[in-house]
Amino acid sequence: MVFVMDITKSKKFVPLLVFILTLTEIVLSGNVLIWPTDGSHWLNMEFILEELIQRNHNVTVLASSATLFINSNPDSPVNFEVIPISYNRRNIDSVIEHMIMLWIDHRPTPLTLWTFFKELGRFLDTIFQMNIQTCEGVLNNTKLLARLQEGAFNVLLADPVTLCGDLVALKLGIPFVYTLRFSPASTVERHCGKIPAPASYVPAALSELTDQMTFGERVKNTISYLLQDYIFQSYWREWNSYYSKVLGRPTTLCEVMGKAEIWLIRTYWDFEFPRPYLPNFEFVGGLHCKPAKPLPKVLWRYKGKKPATLGANTRLYDWIPQNDLLGHPKTKAFITHGGTNGIYEAIYHGVPMVGVPMFADQPDNIAHMKAKGAAVEVNINTMTSEDLLNALRTVINDPSYKENATRLSRIHHDQPVKPLDRAVFWIEFVMRHKGAKHLRPAAHNLSWFQYHSFDVIGFLLACVATAIFLVTKCCLFSCQKFGKTGKKKKRE
Amino acid sequence: MVFVMDITKSKKFVPLLVFILTLTEIVLSGNVLIWPTDGSHWLNMEFILEELIQRNHNVTVLASSATLFINSNPDSPVNFEVIPISYNRRNIDSVIEHMIMLWIDHRPTPLTLWTFFKELGRFLDTIFQMNIQTCEGVLNNTKLLARLQEGAFNVLLADPVTLCGDLVALKLGIPFVYTLRFSPASTVERHCGKIPAPASYVPAALSELTDQMTFGERVKNTISYLLQDYIFQSYWREWNSYYSKVLGRPTTLCEVMGKAEIWLIRTYWDFEFPRPYLPNFEFVGGLHCKPAKPLPKVLWRYKGKKPATLGANTRLYDWIPQNDLLGHPKTKAFITHGGTNGIYEAIYHGVPMVGVPMFADQPDNIAHMKAKGAAVEVNINTMTSEDLLNALRTVINDPSYKENATRLSRIHHDQPVKPLDRAVFWIEFVMRHKGAKHLRPAAHNLSWFQYHSFDVIGFLLACVATAIFLVTKCCLFSCQKFGKTGKKKKRE
């Protein structure tokens, strides 16, 4: 296929094309190491890997021997380095099942917040043990480490929900980039990434609040931040010891995580409430979305027994091409558990949603879509078929839902650079320049006390207090003297 | 000229090209109204105008009858609407001269800070009077206003150093975008744009500090913020009244300025210290920079008398093509007063600098370049020819200056989208979507008290105090009761 264009007739193309050619020239072919997290996280990350391969990079994935989706397909151009671990796929399934049940039973409302976090805290121990196994599987594996050293990697791309990717990068002496949806109450982003989050209008993750809060909601939001900080600071203590042990010097999890060159956040302003961020944060939500392909006629598989009560107009499928279905012009609404990947496919195609959130970021995601007028929520614990039907009727018949979904879709499509291209641009930037230190805020060099200027405020208040004290003393002294002189005069 | 490319051989071009084609399709031809500021501000803004015209937009500039550079060239495709005012070019020259002398005599060091601001405060009155004349020249001019209304403008682009552009936009019922280098201590950006600026690592404008501060410097920085806030809050009081009068309802300057859809800031991370910002802030520094053209042989004009003491190897020119000269491979160093435009040309071409700053942002600009290791400063008040020579020798002979200038140049050139394209993209975005409300932080709806969560903190502290009080009371009551019982038992 040959593409012919008369650029003398379209002046506006010239600078753009010249710029792209310049950019392309300096893109090098390099080696990228991947530290993934399983499940939907991997499904999203895979799109970045595909793009990196398209751009002639060699991609190696560090995957544990027990995995849900991270398959080492022999035809794939991706290299897989398997980390041997003792737990298996069933253990992971069980963890996920427990996590879902925890959320369904103790959804963090103001009344259940404390119970939820207490239960979650216990749960974090299991995750800690599994994560440590993965870490040890690399860091104590001299053969694997030596092989990785020989791999001459230029960058490590890590999903920090599975910790230790940063440690592996440090051991190999290479820069690393994070890809992340969120951490509870943005604990990691705020404390390790130094992103500001004013509690007055930036809702804490897992709070289901929006950027428009009443006084009561702002109190709840502040408590959410404090409580989640408290829980995760305790959780981090174990990690601080582990990180110090591995690096052979006293350090903290946050200090190491703070060395990330770029934070690729898996949302964008079509989904997020506008909030302050830093130049090394890039919002690349929806990077996996693609135009829909026409729906095939006999592609879907059917499995399992059809319930007898099922209506004649309902079909059951084991797997459907969700993106293509959402992009079909006849699709009216999307009933979703509210995962970020699915929500972004709905935003991309402008489809209003009925959300039945279950766990993790799902309730928050649906809260965002509700606030933007593109979704109705149904509570999984209390819902009846009537509720679901009403919700569905609302998003289909009330035109505002379709309008808002379309508006979000327009915002999503109207960016100077596509999210996937931005994500890969910054990974390649880090490869070209061996980092992105010019984007790193000096806040990393300050203690929390200095960061908030508490020392300066204390000093200035002490100065003012001293000044007031001295002035008062002088006044009193003068008054006394004047008083004495006055009395003396009177007496005379 | 025909451009032929076989895109089957270069897969990475396909998505980029498709994306550009999609973007180009939705770019509309619209009407842009410009509210400029004279001098170097205009020289920078002109590049945006040229690009807008290239992209088939109609551009109309509102220019006062007294102007330095804003010429209404009859061949230019730009329309000019002249605002009649009573002051003339000589008055503007005199204001600039006074401003420079004020800075040279009272450069804001810790010792002269207060005197400087007192003098500046007086000076602001003159600027206020001139600015008000320009405002009235439009807002009280019913014929001009009617003509503008007929112009069916889609967006107004304003340099907020000359106030009232926002008011004109509001009167016409169109969205507006700002282009801005800085306001003193980021007063406007912080208070009206809601951009966070932690005093611990974000140096106040005009402070000449960097992001790496000692305790003493952080005290100085905090005082800079407080002092400049105080001065400008008083200055704004007059504007608050004027804005309320024009809009016929009680409002403030900040409330109106806060309605800006996008803030185009004329710096980038090659120049700025990394700092928090908001999604409606776009850093487009160096948008005026272009590759150098070969230097012409007899193009430069010579004017004036040559001093007798001038060496044989020095030439005097009335005007030189600065960008082309800086881009010449034999250019070793750039002696500059430190204006943002010139600094960016030096960054673009990777030329180390000797800075002799005079006023406004110039001392700050040179402080930035010094901190990044690309410049040496010479003090205009105390310098000898020896000082200048030494500075020049340092930046030429010490290779670190050239290396750092080259590093900044690499950072500048390695962006996903060129600054000028980003600036124009967001202006066009506002035209396409009649605003960019999805980027506007909810902080605009909060009072400063609420923004900093002082009400929530107060409430939580009151709760804690009440709890402590109740627990103490209970304990005391129990002790008393227990004590009495104990005594009674003892007595028995």
What does this structure look like?
2 copies of one chain form a homodimer. Chain A has 492 residues and is of the alpha/beta class. Chain A has 2 domains: 28-287 and 418-448, Glycogen Phosphorylase B (Rossmann fold); 322-413, Rossmann fold (3-Layer(aba) Sandwich). In chain A, 49% of the residues lie in helices and 9% in strands. Chain A contains 17 helices and 11 strands. In chain A, helix 3 (89-105) packs antiparallel against helix 4 and helix 4 (113-139) packs parallel to helix 8 (215-247). The relative contact order of chain A is 0.09. The interface between A and B is large, with 79 and 79 residues.
- Helix vs. strand class of chain A: alpha/beta
Q: Give the name of the CATH superfamily of the largest domain in chain A.
A: Glycogen Phosphorylase B
**Oligomer kind:** homodimer
Task: Note the gap between the termini of chain A.
Answer: 116 Å
